[in-house]
Amino acid sequence: FDDNDLSQHGDALNSFLLTCWLTFLHRVTSLSEITLSYLRDGREFDELQTTFGLLAEPVSLSVSCDSNTAFSELQSRAREAIDVVDGNEGVRIAYEFEDQPGRISAGALDFTLIDLYCCSYPFKIKLRCIRKVDQLRYELHYDAASFASETVSKFAETFKEIVDNALRHPQKPIGELNVISPNERLHLLHTLAGTRSEYPRN
Asked: How many CB atoms lie within 10 A of CB 181?
């Protein structure tokens, strides 16, 4: 799904989306220590920024939180965790963020990158975020043997709701951010309104 409103967040965009992903994982698992695979960009030098190839590597990233942790505080912890990531423990939950160039020039030729994707490590579920020029796209990739497509669709709606709420209320505790999408809320209302129970008369 696309979100052009977020595309202008600059360097903070990566940590913001990572924090939304950590919030989602905490809300669905209730874990206070979340560890995931973080794809670290291997292009440390300016000369490598436009280089294609397998330069990135997955590393383990761990962040602690609870329901009372403010979203802004969790984002601060996420930034610190990004700076110290190291090694890979074979974590099966993943997060990727990548900047893709809009146009590449080589002499008299101009190239436009449509998409670039490589899956070089195993995972159960992964949030992939791609920023290209002034557009942002994020995707959920998953192991079909572990999750049904309907479940992942609901995950996507929940994540989008967290993004929207975190933008409006960054100081709120992550346990108070709304995670129910309008579609799910409507479904719940219809389900509850249609529920009837028979009680004994005696």
From this structure: 18
* pLDDT beyond 50 at 14: yes
- Give the CA angle between residues 13, 17, 19 to the nearest 5°: 115
H or E element, residue 10: none
The pTM assigned to this predicted structure is 0.79
Q: Using the Cα atoms of residue 35, residue 153, residue 189 and residue 19 in order, give the sign of their dihedral.
A: positive
Token look-up 């100081």 returns 171
Q: What share of the chain is helix, strand, coil (3-state, %, to 5)?
A: 35, 25, 40
Residue type for 116, please? L
Residue with tokens 């899956």: 119
Alpha helices by DSSP H, 9-148: 12-29, 71-84
